[in-house]
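Could someone model GCB with this protein?
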Amino acid sequence: MGIYTELYPVSNEFRHAESLDGLWRFRFDPEGEGEKRGWADKGLPEALSMPVPSSFADLFTDAAKRDYCGDFWYEAEFYLKEVDESRRRFLRFGSVTHTCRVFVNGKECASHVGGFLPVVAEITGAVVPGRNVLVVKVNNELSETNIPCGTTVRRSDGTKRAMGYFDFFNYSGIQRSVYLMELPREAIYDYELSYRLDGKDAYVDYAVMADGDADVKITFKDAEGNVAASASGRSGTLFIPCAHLWKVRSAYLYDVVIELVREGKTVDRYQAKAGVRTVEISGENILINGEKTYLKGFSKHEDADIVGRGFSYPVLKRDFECLKWMGANCFRTSHYPYSDEWYRMADEEGFLVIDEVPAVGMMRSIANFLAAGRGEAKGFFADCPDTALLSKNHASALSEMIARDKNHPSVIAWSVFNEAETTSEEAERYFAPLFARARELDPQKRPVTGVLESSSSPKRCRVNKMMDFICLNRYYGWYICGGELKEAENLFRSEMDAWQALDLKKPFVFTEFGTDTLDSLHKLPGVMWSQEYQQEYMLMHFDVFDSYPMIQGELVWNFADFQTGQGIMRVNGNKKGLFTRQRQPKAAAYTMRDRWLRQK
Ligand code: GCB
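Reply:
Sure, complex below.
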C-alpha cells in the first residue's frame, strides 16, 4: 500500500471498520517511567477506566488530575478470529492530543506529533489470532516548536503545567473515535475530485491512488441511485450533464463509488459523498458556483460540558440545529481541524467551512488573547527556539489537514494560522512556504487565508499579501474601548478606512468579534458583560459591516461559551458565546438571527 492518507473508515464487502470506542484502561505517568517499567509491552498496572473518545480533564473531581500535564497511557484489547495474510489491518485514531506512540502486542506501530488530525497505524505484522493488546502513550505538554504553541513549566512540587499561548483549555487524550480497519492487500488509499461548471453541466477531474495495478472504476450516482457519470482509469474526467449543484444551505450530494477491478472482479471498493460546486474569489467577492456569497456564522470550538473536546454526536447535532436556527451558513474550525464528523454533517447541511490548522499562539504573552485583542502583541519568529522544527510540524499539520479534508464540498478555504505575529521580516519568511504548500497540495485550489489580530494593521502586516481573502479578528468595544461603543466605532471605522485605502481588491471576512456576556446579567443601559451590551455591540458592528463593500462575511466569536484556563480575565471560561455552553441562546442570538434571516 502506498502512503496511507486520511480516508474516513468505511465498511463494505471488501473492507471492514470496527469502532473501538468505549471504556479503556488509563493511567497518568508523572515520573515518565512507563516505558522503563514495560507498560508498552505488558500493559498498564493499576489502571483507571477512561471513556474513549473524551478529554480526561473534566471527568475527575480533583484539580491535580484536571490540570495534569506530562505522559499518560491508555490500554484496550481487541480480538481477531483469524489473521488472514491476504488482508492488512490498521488502527485509525481521529486524533490523539498532542503527541503519541501506538503499541500493539508490545510492537510500536506508529508515532504522531499534533493533536488534531488522524493517527494511522498499520498493525498487520503485529496482530495475532485471539486477544491483542493495544497501548497508547500520550503526552500533552506544550512548546514553542509544536502547534498550538505554549510552554511547559515545573511547579515547586515537581509537577508540570502546560501554559498555552492561547485562550482555550488544553484538553487532551484520545478525543476522537478509534477504528480497527481491515483492508484488502490491494486497496484504494486516496482520491481527489475537483469541479468545473459549464452552463448546466459539470466536469469532475479525478485521481485515484491505489496499490498495485488493478483497473480503477469511478461512478457518480445521484440521490435516486442512478448512475450520473462513470469513468475508468486512475485519473481522468467525468462529465455530468445537467448536474445537481451542491449549494449553500441546499446541499445535493452524489454517491461516489470507487472500485479496483482485477480480471473483471472487484477487489476493493470505497464509497463516499461528493458535492459538485466551485469556490472562487473574484475581486472583493466570494463566489460559490459563481454566485456571490456573504458568510454568516461563527468561529467555534469543539467544547462541551464533561466531554471537554471529546467528540460527541449529540453535541454535533445540537450545534448544527442551533446554526440552522440562527440562519447561519458558515463556520470556522477555530483553532484546529475538527473531528471528521463535523465536515460530513456540514456537507449534508450545506454549510461552508473555513478549515484551520492548530497554528495558534504564535505570539508570546501571558494573556496572549488579551495582547492580541489590544494590538500589543510581541514578536515571535525572530527568537523562536527552533523555527525550522516549528515550521516542520506546522507544515505536517497543514498537509495532513488538506489530505483529510480536500474532498469535502463544505470546505471552502484553508486557514494557515490564527493571530500569529505577522509584522516582522521573519514572519513573512516563515509563512510564505506554508501558503505555497497549501496551494500546491489542494487539488481544488481553494482560497488560502490566515487570521489577523489587531497588531496586523493595514500599515504593518506583511502577510496579508499572501492571502486570497483577509480574515480579521477585531474587538472594538471590548478589548479596545470596552464600554464606549461610540468611540469604539470611530476607531473601528478609521481602521477600515485604512484597509479600504490600500485597495487590496480582496474580500474581507470578520472571523472574530464579540463580548463576554453572562447569561445572568441584564442592565439597561448596557454595561460590559451584560446581555444588553452584547446586543448593542452587535448592532454597532452591523452598521460598520454594511458600510464597506469589501466586507463579505461575519463570523461571531463565539458560537457558545467555552472552557479556558483560569485567570482574572475569565469567569470559568470564555463567555463570548451567543449560546451558553449548554447551547441555550443569549439575547444577542436573537439580534443576530434577525439580521441573518433577513439577509439573502
Ligand atoms: C482572540 C482569539 C481567541 C480568543 C478571543 C477572546 O483573538 O483568537 O482564541 O478566545 O480572542 O475572546 O479573547
